[in-house]
Design brief:
Number of strands: 12
Mean pLDDT: 96
Order of helices and strands: EHEHEHEHEHHEHEHEHEHEHEHEH
Shape: globular
Strand content: 15-25%
Structural class: alpha/beta
Radius of gyration: 21 Å
Helix content: 25-40%
Distance between the termini: 21 Å
Low-confidence stretches: none
Largest sheet: 7 strands, parallel
Length: 327
Amino acid sequence: MPLIAIIDWAASPLDDSDAAVERAVIGDAARVKRFLCSSDADFDEEICDADALIVWHNTPITATGLNRLRNCKTLIRNGVGFDSVDIDAARQLGIPVCNVPNYGTEEVADHAIALTLALCRQLFPLDEEAKRLGWVIRVQPKLRRLRELVFGVVGLGRIGTATALRAKSLGFQVCFYDPYLPNGVDKAIGIARAKSLPELLAKADVLSVHCPLNDETHHMIAEDELALMKPSAFVVNTARGAVIKKTAILNALRSGQLAGAGLDVVEDEPLKTPDEAATPNLIVTCHAAFCSVESKNEMRATSARIAVAAIAGLPLENIVNEVEVPI
């Protein structure tokens, strides 16, 4: 019987040991087994013989690991991002890599807005003050009226659009930058468009990042870009950590160059030192924006459905590395 291997992160497993959601979808079509791995160096012979792999985001899959796979008909990244997989090496080996782009759209957009509201209304400093049994509103200069603010969106894909529409409904003046979208998208959803990233950075009171991590976007927001922003501005990142250079944004917060940041994702996550954790005006939320009971079940069920299709020789959803699957 074919084997579908679920590769979970050894340091902090995200799946349940019974893989109940996956088994409900896969049924008798294949054996299902979960393996705990820190990296593909932990792959044993059983994994290397598997017919399909479902991989959680914290386990990097390199060319070395891919070359050890003997029967793999597809590798499914259990989530939206696929930067943890060497998709070029997989393409050369004829292994289609798929992702699950739709499952957490609402959750991530909601999370970006939650971080935005926490910053604009300074919820955490006010909570801390009240729990000290005090009642002094020290953060009053940072408390903002939303309809006076420009909400800048970097990347107007599924999640970026969902976030932009939520921000618009709250009264923000929404503007986006995305060089890959055709003219007229701004008119279709009733928001403004910046012609360049520097233009957006200069006008944004809140900058919300929603682009994938690749060679083009790695450290897209670094020292020079942050220097273009208002010192009263907030930065929110629910995309990928390395889109924003970690040292640059932490230093900007320490120096007062930025008023605050809400980061669900951080470069080289999690935070590594007490000094990083003590950075002022910083909210960090454990790469959890995607997470809800409903979204995780949807994600896992979709990955399982793709794995079954691969074993059956059926068309695959969401191939990200241009491998043609023979039918």
